[in-house]
């Protein structure tokens, strides 16, 4: 086992800084551990090297994901920078790009992706880039070219696949796309003789989807993660020691140990609060995906609530509780809601006033002090009467009323937004445009700690 | 069996040692186990339930020939159950015994403070100390493997208390002073990730994420535990389990459940997993009513064979 070469330390610190920039907490002690680990494992083995760093630097699955991305990007840039400064070139790349048969290539790529052979994918990505280049329609923008090449090769996830073809899923294709992107970037660097500026990682699952066309798989992943974390919310508050209500029976039993003298008091455990929840979600085009996302999260958690009824509205209101009870798949749920909701009458514009009146007529009887009403909407009335008095009546009957606005607070009350009129009747109003906002909020509703800054 | 004190030379050695005691570690798991011994740092293992987190600690103990000291965490676990406790009864008895002795001697008229001092003298010694797992692991003359299982079940105060043990391998007992470890234990902490652990704890640990294994590796594991199982059947079994895992279930099947299923199939004498066999035995891998419906619908359909009577009539 050889000691790490000089100069590695500086590079590691650079890597640590890049990781920090992406929001991982990499402290000096982690870096010291990483150095110690590299002395124990052979740093010449790529896998061991990476795993040793990951074990000491990345301390959660999310961190590990970021680490892998940053690590790859860091190595790639470091190698290319070295190549540029020392003026190393590949010389002639593949000749004879025009002789490559596109169909055969496509088939080979498909196979390599399905088998998950990484090295082969890389080679094929280079071939694909060359064969694509001969057509002379490179746009110069890497992202656009990647998509063009992918379409040229006829790579599509599910739906488009014909019978007999191998079915590839999105993540597998994404891996091939990464290779393509890397090859294109390498070409570009060789052409321009300088590195493009480093960009931060895309903030994919940290912000809410703004349109249904966005990658639903990413949303689903975020929901699954939320679900797991929220399922245990408030657990830490349900211990026996948090609230001092003496449990006489258990105290007496415990006193037997000390000869009948109650030396130690036993306390009654705190029961979790299980609220009744009524959710009203605006599903007009401006906020639809945030609403469906929010509803999915709530329904994934239905065990923590005594009762959960959900409604969607645009011009009219419609109950969708049973849709969520039958479907678990996020994608299917959003399809069914848009198909069967039947909430848009004529114009497709939200009519808050009418929605309140319908909700009050149908549900107001059931509302009580244990009920929580949650409204998710942008409070944009499109110039119609907001009927705040009906809304006030609803909030008066319900125990708590929360309003979630998918617009940043800055935009509230501009234009036709009448947020202020409703906000005064609510227990609290939150802005809600990232998964983090949502998580904090669901935390509050499910009886956990108060969200920070709420 | 390896000498418990010597450190392994490289990763392959650890991997082979683990394989010899029946634990097939993947590359990251072997590497982190190796680092844990080479650097003497605790390891935090996270992952879904039933992927072999606890088993890794047990295997490490077997592979290194060390004793396994296990601390099972639960809500409300405190120092007296994890670190040490004074044996009150014994102390009380001893004080009473001395009082009786003095009563016999019959010297009255001494000052009460002096009497109290005399009475408590010598009762805060190791003789009256009940060792709990953490103290046992630290004070053990032979090196041990300390397993702190499901650390996420405890509260943050307990985590904070662990910090002294994990970074300095010592325990301070106010009445006795600091007890330092005589040998360096291998420490494994496991967590089901149901709660974020504190930064301070994570900082002191190496991190290992154990996920569900690949098809190939799970096949090896299943065949290791039930060698009589036919290879093609084992492959099919693992593929079906993977299919089940890919659904959005409340509780996806773990490796242990794959092994149970393999054993059940052996007992039933099944030579293929068709729809009928699957429907009869799937309760071994799926343990939630709503999950059962979903799995029967999505996976049962894809397996060949006649539908069972229950399905046909329902």
Descriptive notes:
The complex is a heterodimer of chains A (454) and B (314). Chain A has 454 residues and is α/β, with parallel strands linked by helices. Helices cover 48% and strands 7% of the residues of chain A. A 6-stranded mixed sheet of chain A has the order 3-2-1-4-5-6. Chain B is 49% helix and 13% strand. Chain B folds into 3 domains: 11-78 and 142-209, P-loop containing nucleotide triphosphate hydrolases (Rossmann fold, 3-Layer(aba) Sandwich); 84-128, no CATH class; 215-302. The interface between A and B is medium-sized, with 36 and 31 residues.
Distance between the termini of chain B: 57 Å
Summarize the main sheet of chain B: 5 strands, parallel
Strand order of the largest sheet of chain B: 2-5-8-1-9
- Our estimate of the beta-strand percent of chain A is 5-15%
Average pLDDT of chain A works out at 73
Query: What's the total count of β strands of chain B?
Result: 9
> What's the number of structural domains of chain A?
4
The helix/strand class of chain B is: alpha/beta
Radius of gyration of chain A: 29 Å
- What's the architecture of the largest domain in chain A, going by CATH? 3-Layer(aba) Sandwich
Specify the CATH homologous superfamily of the largest domain in chain A.
von Willebrand factor, type A domain
Q: Uncertain spans of chain A, ≥5 residues at pLDDT below 50?
A: 158-165, 202-216, 234-241, 449-454
- Output mean pLDDT of chain B: 83
- Main β sheet profile of chain A: 6 strands, mixed
**CATH class designation of the largest domain in chain A:** Alpha Beta
Biggest interface reads: A-B, 36 and 31 residues
